[in-house]
Amino acid sequence: MRSSDDQVVIYREGAGVVIYAITLAIACFALAALFFYISDDKAIPWAFGGLFIVAGGLLLTASPEFIRRIVKDKGAVLLVADKAGVSIAPMLGKAPVSYRWADVSQIFLTRKLVSKEIGERSYCSNQIIVCFRRDNIEEKAGLIERSKDQLWRSPNGRSISIIDFPRGEIDRVRNELIRFFNAGDVQMFGKVIFDYAESTEQLQP
User: Fold this and answer.
1) Prediction pTM value
2) Which residues pair with 86 in a beta bridge?
3) Among 38, 39, 35, which residue's Cα sits nearest to residue 56?
4) What does the alpha-carbon distance between residue 133 and residue 138 come to, in Å, rounded to a whole number?
5) CB 63 within 8 A of CB 21
6) Which residues of 46-61 are buried (b: 16+ CB within 10 A; e: fewer)?
7) How many CB atoms lie under 10 A from the CB of residue 33?
8) Which residue has the higher pLDDT, 39 or 172?
């Protein structure tokens, strides 16, 4: 994380992200080769192998632009906050999507985020949850558009974006965010539980 009088930027170190992307592309090609090897001229393994070839190719094709953006931004930017609003990168290597502060209702910082679905649950650590006002964010946007912008729904139906923050920096992140957003609306929690099966949200100290 880096900050100045005008903004705060949360990012991932560029070298690690580039290595991760290249490793992922190699893994796609390796899985493709495995499916081709076991296919025995059957259509389904060949189809899966083809999908992994395409995925790996897309990753490598996007790499030069991705690397240029990382060099320009001095890292893979996840979030930028300033007086005008907050910009959130929907995924690594993608240009951030900008929102006005008037679009934001609350920001939660949590050391642990638990998401519960029927029969399964997932865990994430060190998460920023940006909650948007229902009347300011387009509620009728299609699933593909929302997915592209990584705009999800909370169990209570609010539009949210979820971003990583550096481990052990929860107090600093909150202090930086409240320089640009209302202090009372940037809250810290030890655990946030999104229970989609029960349509409930638990915010625990």
Assistant:
1) 0.72
2) 81, 99
3) 35
4) 10
5) yes
6) eebbeebbebbeebee
7) 13
8) 172
Where along the chain do its domains lie? 101-204
- pLDDT tens by residue, 100-126: 999 999 999 999 999 998 888 899 999
Residue with tokens 């949590």: 110
One-letter identity of residue 164: D
Exposed/middle/buried for 185, CB within 10 Å: 0-12, 13-18, 19+? middle
Query: What proportion of the chain, given as a percentage, has pLDDT over 90?
Result: 38
- What is the widest separation between alpha-carbon atoms in the chain? 62
Q: Rounded to whole angstroms, what are the CA distances from 29 to 21, 32, 47, 53?
A: 13, 5, 13, 6
Render pLDDT for 78-101 as a digit per residue (tens, 0 to 9): 899 999 999 998 766 567 888 999
Residue 141 predicted with pLDDT over 60: no
- Report the distance separating Cα 122 and Cα 102, nearest Å: 31
**SS3 of 181, please?**
coil
Helix (H, G, I), strand (E, B) or coil at 155: coil
Measured distance CA(105)–CA(33) in Å, rounded: 48
- For the stretch 151-182, what's the b/e string if a residue is b when 16 or more beta carbons lie within 10 angstroms of its beta carbon? beebbeebbbbbbebeeeebeebbebbebbbe
* SS3 label, residue 180: coil
